[in-house]
Design a protein that fits this description.
The chain has 249 residues and is an alpha/beta fold. It contains 10 helices and 9 strands. The strands form 2 sheets. Strands 3-2-1-7-8-9 form a 6-stranded parallel β-sheet, sandwiched between helices.
Length: 249
């Protein structure tokens, strides 16, 4: 009997000495977090990201910036990981997954049990003062937003805080992106989950794996530039697809 697509992915995992996962917004949709570009529900459907999520927007109008990000922080703080996050944590615990590289800022991989995800776009876990370097926890920022008379969470020095996420117009954290490219280059298999592979330089990571002789698997709905090149593409519900892969192992 021929292998199912999930069975083929499981076979590739077993055949590989080094497996890495790259995750995007799609893995967190079952947890109630909207992705960015889906018609009718995407985060940028009714908001111009260049006006509210650009570093220049934070600098020029921190009140408007935090009106947008404050809502997002409040929403993300209570979200919980779903089965897809838990499958990756389980694969890591079984020694079948070397690392999770994530474009997400939502902390759900850590909540699911992944030991040390490589956070390529930063995290909502903390916010920082770009003037004095003071860092504040997510919980403290949420409280500040509720109590601030002007809607801007501020450092003890009085300057507006900036979330430790990568905004438009900012460079990715150098240590994280360098680590990601090293892991991608050394991987026998990269599993891309819930990502359209359209945002660079992260979208270059599968190419790094393929260039060094590794294979690429997609677990994502919608088209990607890798649809014609991936060894396998699973494009149903991300929780069901990854649960099927785990079951086949």
């Amino acid at each position: 009997m021929p292998l199912t697509p999930a069975g083929r992915v499981a076979e590739l995992i077993r055949e590989s000495d080094s497996v890495v996962a790259l995750t995007g917004a799609g893995i967190s949709v079952p947890s109630g977090i909207s992705d960015f570009r889906s018609a009718g529900s995407g985060l940028w459907e009714n908001v111009n990201p260049m006006e509210v999520a650009h570093i220049d927007a934070w600098r020029s109008d921190p009140k408007r910036f935090w009106e947008f990000y404050g809502q997002r922080f409040g929403m993300l703080a209570d979200k919980q990981p779903n089965q897809a996050h838990r499958v990756l944590a389980r694969l890591e615990q079984r020694g079948l997954l070397d690392a999770v590289l994530t474009q997400n800022i939502d902390m759900l991989h850590q909540k699911a049990g992944t030991a040390d995800p490589v956070e390529l776009h930063g995290t909502i876990r903390t916010s920082s003062c770009l003037s004095c370097g003071h860092q504040v926890s997510l919980e403290a920022v949420v409280s500040m937003l509720e109590e601030s008379p002007d809607g801007i969470p501020r450092c003890v020095c009085g300057e507006p805080l900036k979330p430790d996420v990568v905004l438009f117009g900012e460079m990715l954290p150098e240590a994280a992106i360098n680590r990601a490219f090293d892991l991608a280059a050394g991987a026998d298999l990269m599993i891309c989950i819930g990502t359209s592979l359209e945002v660079f330089p992260v979208a270059s990571l599968p190419e790094e794996t393929a260039r060094n002789g590794g294979r690429v698997v997609l677990v994502t709905q919608g088209p990607t530039p890798w649809d014609g090149r991936a060894d396998v593409k699973l494009d149903n519900d991300v929780e069901d697809d990854l649960a099927a892969v785990l079951g086949a192992l």
